[in-house]
Amino acid sequence: MSTLPSLHDVLRDARLPAGSHLTRVVESEAARIADASIAAATRRTLDARFERSLRETKARNGGAVIAEFKRASPSLGAFAADRDFDTQLQAYRDGGAAAVSILAEPALFQGNTDEVRAAARYGMPRLYKGFVLDARHLDEAATVAQADAVLLIARVLGRHTAAFADAARERGLEPLVELHELGEIPFARDSGATLIGINARDLASFAIGAPTADPLREAFPDAVLIRESGLSTPEDARAAFAQGFDAVLIGEALMRSNDPAAFLQACRT
User: Fold this and answer.
1) Which residues contact 241 (CB under 8 A, 6 or more apart)?
2) pLDDT, tens digit, 9 for 90 and up, residues 200-252
3) In this structure, which topology does domain 7-266 adopt according to CATH?
4) Is this model's pTM higher than 0.90 or not?
5) Which residue from 148, 131, 154 is spatially nearest to 51, judged by alpha carbons?
6) Where are the domains of the chain?
7) What residue ranges in the chain does DSSP mark as E strands?
């Protein structure tokens, strides 16, 4: 397995804004993973199941949706604490979601790795949605959560993004590299990732912006481009597809919806 930078080095180089939501989550996850006892993952062959599902669904429906399960967030608190996991995942499958994103961060998002693993019974490829800072996070995603893909946040990992992407692939995990601004494109390009997300939500302030696909398509002509956050309606999803995104990731709106399956079906173009 590739040697990764230490947790200390990752945190030192991240230089996150003091007191921000992102800093709170990262500090919480750093403390958790430092004390965790997780079996080291063995080398696994990467089969690109997550990416393949997004591409095939886009070809059929004009765009793909990654449906997210999350009960809480640092800015909203517990906004969907009463949502039943199995009922929601069944709705995602019935609605034609191409893949699912399951929160793994326990303190501020109320996620857990057991649910990442449990989502396998619904047949959709699964993204371990966490705040990866250390090799133990990747081992957790591969061995405990048994995920197909893992989120790597360029804002956090910076120049270490490529090393974490390589280490993820060695564990059989597809890296989804998430950007928050175009200045982070070089980190994603160096990683060789073919799943590129841009988050409309600034993780420091949690304000919503309006990213465009054009500069990303120029930088990553062959990648699957994913618009994340700030999508409240099926019309928002269809607009993102029209702007050149191949897929969207929707969480809060689906968790609040009275009919998530119908919401997903309405996202088709």
Assistant:
1) 62, 63, 248, 269
2) 654 443 333 456 788 899 999 999 999 998 899 999 999 999 999 999 999 99
3) TIM Barrel (3.20.20)
4) yes
5) 148
6) 7-266
7) 64-69, 72-73, 77-78, 99-103, 126-129, 149-153, 174-179, 195-199, 224-228, 247-250
